[in-house]
Amino acid sequence: xxxxxxxxxxxxxxxxxxxxxxxxxxxxxxxxxxxxxxxxxxxxxxxxxxxxxxxxxxxxxxxxxxxxxxxxxxxxxxxxxxxxxxxxxxxxxxxxxxxxxxxxxxxxxxxxxxxxxxxxxxxxxxxxxxxxxxxxxxxxxxxxxxxxxxxxxxxxxxxxxxxxxxxxxxxxxxxxxxxxxxxxxxxxxxxxxxxxxxxxxxxxxxxxxxxxxxxxxxxxxxxxxxxxxxxxxxxxxxxxxxxxxxxxxxxxxxxxxxxxxxxxxxxxxxxxxxxxxxxxxxxxxxxxxxxxxxxxxxxxxxxxxxxxxxxxxxxxxxxxxxxxxxxxxxxxxxxxxxxxxxxxxxxxxxx
Length: 351
Ligand code: NAP
Ligand code: GDD
Prior knowledge:
Layout: E1 3-7, H1 12-23, E2 27-32, H2 41-45, E3 53-56, H3 62-72, E4 76-79, H4 86-91, H5 93-114, E5 119-125, H6 132-136, H7 151-170, E6 174-179, E7 182-183, H8 192-204, E8 211-213, E9 219-220, E10 223-224, H9 225-237, E11 243-246, E12 252-253, H10 254-264, E13 273-275, H11 293-299, H12 307-326, E14 349-350
Parallel strand pairs: 1-2, 1-4, 2-3, 4-5, 5-6, 6-11, 7-10, 8-13
Antiparallel strand pairs: 3-14, 9-12
NADP nicotinamide-adenine-dinucleotide phosphate (NAP) binds at residues 8, 10-14, 33, 35, 39, 58-60, 80-84, 99, 123, 125, 179, 181-182, 188.
């Protein structure tokens, strides 16, 4: 049985990847950090809460990362943990630089010491291209120039280069997945697609009245997260390590997303949306569209869920959640709590 370690298993991609890998028969380990409010609802949502081993680790803590590798003895490592919200990276640039950038050195060094033969996936990002897409006027390829436009993007670019460095210097099987935006009902509420779909559902059920947004002109290449974690896995199964863009090849503006989302519940967006300066960033990538040809050819990966399907499935899920809430059901994100075993097993939660 293969063993996989997922850093950031409590995030959107971590939960879908844990589901994919447990389904393939892997023994799945994931790192989580102590928070004042436990954040394990996505694992529960995906039905893997009791099937994965949770290991306490923090990106700032070298020893805990080494211990995670020792405990899991991984064949494959998916390094997903990061401060992933671009807007927050302008507010906490140093902390973002540490968690999203420098921590890549910590995990790669820990791998060099503990398990240099393990295969390594780094969660790179389309944000590294910045406005290269606007300049070139076509979907971006792996060979296009980078121009990061946020502390987050700069930190990821550091991680991207370091991953390449360890591949070249130490012969690591280390890959960069340059993933464009991917969304789902498990997205954090601060990201624009989930913010929109959540508010649209509340407005349609008369729980809320207004949706306040920032830049409606920005456009993004939005895909469906469960399909993107499949691409991560395929990258680690290939014969040689490389860097791959994962995208749909089509982009839409935030305004188009809003219009489509209100359409799903039969409302006119103009009556409910206002633009609020607070949600503008000091600098914003105007447009991002990726060309996934290399991933299609080399990995046999292609997206199936297109923009309209994605918006519709996200809105419908939120409507269902808020309907249940109105009937007195608890939010899935209120439950679960840490399992009782966590009080006994201080290092690893085997549930
Ligand atoms: P996410 O939902 O924000 O998950 C991030 C994960 O990192 C969470 O498990 C979080 O733990 C963990 N984390 C953050 N800081 C940490 C720290 N100091 N120590 C330990 N763990 C920490 O992000 P996602 O959407 O799943 O994305 C996964 C990765 O892909 C991220 O690296 C992101 O930057 C990158 N990426 C995402 C996209 C996208 O569109 N989703 C596109 C390109 C690249 P908590 O749950 O405790 O907060
Ligand atoms: N979050 C947010 N909130 N964004 C808004 C809002 C708002 O109220 N109004 C407009 N936007 C615009 C942002 O300015 C940005 O141009 C766009 O919506 C998308 O914002 P996010 O959903 O926060 O995502 P992101 O594109 O900045 O970053 C995501 O994708 C990257 C890949 O391209 C994150 O998942 C990153 O971790 C990931 O690397």
